[in-house]
């Protein structure tokens, strides 16, 4: 059985500044670096041997992956965050209420349906072309949330909060379905 560890990148400068960050990028903060190291320790402490690694092409995701694991990795454009168009780099207070649906299309961004299809296809392509059992994938908040929504009905484990920086969503592939088995949220309070 294949297990996928889907992880959001560590805290970035734009996260700290409450700016909309999709296709645009900003570096990890010192806290984000520590979050990624703690996520990496989770695998070592639980003696989970990862077989392969994949990440978004965004610098924040690549840097997070390199702090979690020293595996060689592949980058994938389709693992990137939602494209928020002209809202990129603006304050989060400008976001409309959830769900966003097609809101960002009028501002040269993506629809929710498009980002959900894109991230789902990217993860399926990675998993179903692999012969390995334990796959690490680093992506982004809204992208992961939309992947979660696609497969939500297959799992008894439900999200009760937003996807935090360096949260780990552990999926198992069962009969070609992605079943969420666990959400690992680390305690970073000692870092603040």
From TrEMBL:
PROSITE patterns to which the protein is assigned, alphabetical: PG_MUTASE
A GO CC annotation given for this chain: cytoplasm
Binding residues for substrate: 8-15, 60
GO molecular function terms attached to this record: phosphatase activity
Active site (record annotation): 9 (tele-phosphohistidine intermediate), 81 (proton donor/acceptor)
InterPro entries recorded: His_Pase_superF_clade-1, His_PPase_superfam, PG/BPGM_mutase_AS, PGM_Phosphatase
SUPFAM superfamilies assigned: Phosphoglycerate mutase-like (SSF53254)
PANTHER family with a match to the protein in the record: BROAD-SPECIFICITY PHOSPHATASE YOR283W-RELATED (PTHR48100), HISTIDINE PHOSPHATASE FAMILY PROTEIN (PTHR48100:SF5)
Protein name: Histidine phosphatase family protein
Source species: Vagococcus hydrophili
Lineage of the species this protein comes from: Bacteria, Bacillati, Bacillota, Bacilli, Lactobacillales
């Amino acid at each position: 059985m294949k297990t996928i560890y889907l992880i959001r990148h560590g805290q970035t400068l734009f996260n700290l500044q409450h700016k909309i960050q999709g296709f645009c990028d900003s570096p990890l903060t010192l806290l984000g670096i520590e979050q990624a190291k703690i996520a990496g320790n989770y695998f070592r402490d639980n003696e989970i041997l990862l077989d392969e690694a994949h990440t978004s092409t965004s610098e924040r995701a690549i840097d997070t992956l390199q702090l979690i694991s020293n595996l060689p990795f592949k980058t994938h454009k389709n693992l990137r965050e939602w494209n928020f168009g002209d809202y990129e780099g603006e304050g989060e207070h400008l976001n409309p209420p959830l769900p966003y649906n097609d809101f960002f299309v009028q501002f040269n961004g993506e629809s929710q349906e498009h980002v959900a299809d894109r991230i789902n296809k990217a993860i399926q392509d990675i998993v179903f072309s692999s012969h390995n059992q334990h796959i690490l994938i680093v992506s982004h908040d809204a992208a992961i949330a939309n992947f979660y929504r696609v497969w939500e009905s297959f799992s008894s484990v439900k999200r009760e909060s937003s996807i935090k920086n360096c949260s780990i969503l552990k999926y198992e592939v069962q009969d070609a379905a992605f079943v969420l088995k666990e959400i690992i949220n680390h305690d970073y309070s000692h870092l603040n």
